[in-house]
Amino acid sequence: MKLTLALSLLLPAVVAHAADKPASGPRASFSGHGENVRHFIQAHDLDGDGAIDRAEFERFRRQRFEATDLDRDGAISLPEYVTEFDARLDEMLKPELAAIDGMTRTRFSALAGGGSHVTRERYDASGARIYAAYAADKLPTALPAADGRRRLLDLPTTHSRNGLMALYDRNSDSHLAREEFDTARAEQFERTDVNRDGRIGFDEYATEYGERIERARHDLNVRAIRQTRVRFGVLDKNRDDRVDWGEYMASGQRLFDGNDRNGDGRVDATDATHPPKPRTGAN
């Protein structure tokens, strides 16, 4: 479910012409990069020279502000803020979803032994290996992100203890008995084998995994709704339910200052060698 649709249950809709107009402007960025100089530069470096001074950063903020102010009234409302945030979230998810798609195909091929279907025998053999690794305490508690950045979609995996608990610990006792595991795996096979031919084809496998992705996206949207309301409240200093340019840029300035760790009026790779400043405000 889209974030804007979910929030519409709580807020008045944006005026019709604004709702029909997609946000455009600077490349997508996502909150949370405030103390990461490299990501800050990637998100805000308009001329691509690897450094951002205050003038360039203000140009970026102005472009973002104008792209978010859909009805062009000189201020950003909460629905407008959510619409722009939703568009950024979609952009941030694209590479993650592409990676998930590739991994889904790789895992299916391995599970099917290079064949066109996963037989029940191969499925059960895979389950036995998974449980043996769990029982021997060979699984890490959680998997670290490959590039050091936390994934937006929280998808459990059988390659970690936390993932197994999320997938198969039905009684939520933080322990996975073999019978409990086998029952959950059998139910998962039956649920995935839509045509009931006793085996799983790629389309069935991808559909079941896609349903898990949709649930994860729903959970992400619920968290994002809370986050956008809090962030908007931080921006709206005078509490008039609108964020004007002055309020928007003031928050951005705090973001710039937080990344300008050596205080020379520009953000570049040198700042990454200095310890981060305490982060305040919202962007």
Automatic annotation (TrEMBL):
Keywords: Signal. SUPFAM superfamilies: EF-hand. PROSITE patterns: EF_HAND_1, EF_HAND_2. Residues 1-18 form the signal peptide. InterPro entries: EF-hand-dom_pair, EF_Hand_1_Ca_BS, EF_hand_dom. GO terms for molecular function: calcium ion binding. This is EF-hand domain-containing protein.
